[in-house]
Amino acid sequence: MEMVQTKVHHKKRQVVIFIILIILWEAGSELIQYSILEETESGTFVANLTKDLGLRMGELAARAAQVVVKGNRQYLQFDPETYDLLLNEKLDREELCGSTEPCVLPFQVLLKNPVQFIQGELQLQDVNDHAPEFLENEILLKISESSHTGTAFPLKIAQDLDVGSNTVQNYTISTNFHFHIFTRNRSDGRKYPELVLDKELDREKQPELRLTLTALDGGSPPKTGTSQVLIMVLDINDNAPEFARQLYEVQVPENSPIGSLVITVSARDLDAGTYGELSYSFFQSSNQVIQAFEVNTVTGDIRLKKMLDFEEIRSYRMEIEASDGGGLSGKCTVAIEVTDVNDNAPELTMSLLMNDIPENTPDTVVAIFGISDPDAGDNGKMMCYIQDHLPFLLKITVENFYTLVTEGALDRESRAKYNITITVTDMGTPRLKTEHNITVLVSDINDNAPAFTQTSYTLSVRENNSPALHIGTVRATDRDAGANAQVTYSLLPPLDPHVPLASLVSINPDNGHLFALRSLDYEALRAFEFRVGAADRGSPALSSQALVRVLVADDNDNAPFVLYPLQNASAPCTELVPRAAEAGYLVTKVVAVDGDSGQNAWLSYQLLKATEPGLFGVWAHNGEVRTARLLSERDAAKHRLVVLVKDNGEPPLSASVTLHVLLVDGFSQPYLLAPEAEAAAAAPAAPLTVYLVVALASVSSLFLFSVLVFVAVRLCRRGGAASVGRCSVPEGPFPGHLVDVSGTGTLSQSYQYEVCLTGGSGTRELKCLKPLVPNIMGEGVGTDTEDNSNFRNHFGFN
């Protein structure tokens, strides 16, 4: 079998190539580290990754390298030409890391084909871009005139957002006779100034002093910040305030509301009066402390001024000062630890997503994504999963990075679309989760052949149809999509090579409509079979076939054809009937056939015309012509009958036949001419006949007489025969296609006929056909009384 295929010449096909990422993770321990100064301009060169990773030139581009950074801020990028690592934006270390040192920004480099993650760190180096700054422009300091030399008075520190050597490194005081500055280190590494008394104060001589305090950082050149120190000289105050504890420690949940009490500090002063009245305040506290907390000057209650955020600042450390009315003060330290609550849902950052994947391709990478949770402890631990009963798997690559891949090959015909929900949940209490929905479409490949709706089709068409008649439709479907599902129909080579299929039917290649190309003839072709093919337009094309059987329905397009008596003979056939015949005597039988089938071939007979109505009748079902009553001497000797043969079609078709019947008194005559042949009988005998008679007479008159006697005896024994003369039975049966069951009007195989030949002319001319029946006159006149009675009843005669 050869399918009809479209040939395409000199044309290149463009095939969409799907890059299937095979997961070959190399989660090695190697870490690439780079450093760069903050405030560097965007586009600055950071590193040559091709060289640092030992890759070939152009491999980063070939493997579609991509920088993945936590969160939505992309501060690194690849040069589109050289694939050098460049700075994507100007970075501010203080904004990104605050006071944390070192300031490290993690990133990953994602390579594809195969997939590979490379961990990296970018360290931001501080530049001296911030000057020291005091929170207050004027610092008030009350010192008793009785203070001894060498007494140190701590002063409030200056703030510097820079870190390391760029932050505050030293303090100086303006020139004076009473004090000098000593710079000390705090436990957190910051430096603070102490004002040391060099010469005793005398309130009566100088009640107050105004000095300038300067803070210097370690930059080159150093940046400075100043504040005025106002020193008020007080009368003698014997006791300074003392706190109950030098260090207060407390934990505060980050979701504590504004105004919540954090802790209460308490101090006492043994002096009386105004010297024993205490006032609480922050001492040497940072901007972060002052913005987040407030202290009640009377009670020492420390309360929240704003909501805390564990993910932003995890702890605070502050100095609280208690001052009495005499200018003396005491200090304590308050350490506040912010405890984490699960107030941040996990975050999912998609790095790679392929929404369209081909079917029948296993282990295809669909998505690569990272997850993160800024909470700590169990609140920051995460688990990632997708819904069950999906042909996809989540595989972890490096820490908190996942790959979504197909689990085996997908079948588009089973399911063409998947809605996948990636759920990330943390382990905190209560658990928080994030859902990310992606839609994956399965693209089609040509893996299904067209399938006919039926394995075989049976169509019916009535004969004598008009050409190009639509006789039926075959239909095939293809489970694929697009061009792979577009079906083209064609006729396959015929099963029987003798059937001219190309001239009988055609098929529409687009919709499978079948058409008869010419008018069909039931009598010539009653049925035929052929195969149709259905091929899709995929590459490669797939096909299937089905069997079609066409049945030609008969139409009443053939009139009955009379086989006997013959109407084209040179002389009409004359039937001889003895006058002594009773009612129901079989005169002859009209035999006809019809080329149609079914009810179109059912024949009925009727007597259309008769010389003497009522004397003869015709059986409707078998065409037998019989006498309807007893014959008499008054009946005419010659009769002409016209018999109508009609089929049962719609409309009915018919034919007629003329019969000649001659009533005779007996069969003593050796030969009886038909009336139309009497004139021909009077003609002179042929010369051959004359020669034979003379020859026979000359041999022996006695011999001739004996022969005549012998012939006369034979004729008498056959008394009642319907025809005289020399008769012979035709050799062999009639053709099979003219044979039908008895009683339908067609010729039965068991029915024999005599061929009567005219002998008077000597030309052996066909005279008539006459049935040979067993009940001839000499034997059955008396035994057919019952049959004759039935016959009369059939025709309505009494």
From TrEMBL:
GO BP term, example: homophilic cell adhesion via plasma membrane adhesion molecules
Domain Cadherin: residue ranges: 135-243, 244-348, 349-452, 453-562, 577-677
Listed GO MF terms: calcium ion binding
Chief localization: membrane
GO CC, alphabetical: plasma membrane
InterPro entries: Cadherin-like_dom, Cadherin-like_sf, Cadherin_C, Cadherin_CS, Cadherin_N, Protocadherin/Cadherin-CA
Keyword Secreted: no
Membrane spanning stretches: 690-713
Pfam families: Cadherin, Cadherin_2, Cadherin_C_2
Subcellular location: Membrane
Keywords: Calcium, Cell adhesion, Glycoprotein, Membrane, Repeat, Signal, Transmembrane, Transmembrane helix
Gene3D superfamilies, A to Z: Cadherins
Entry keyword annotation includes RNA-binding: no
Membrane-topology annotation of the record: Single-pass membrane protein
UniProt-recorded name of the protein: Protocadherin beta-17-like
Source species taxonomy: Eukaryota, Metazoa, Chordata, Craniata, Vertebrata
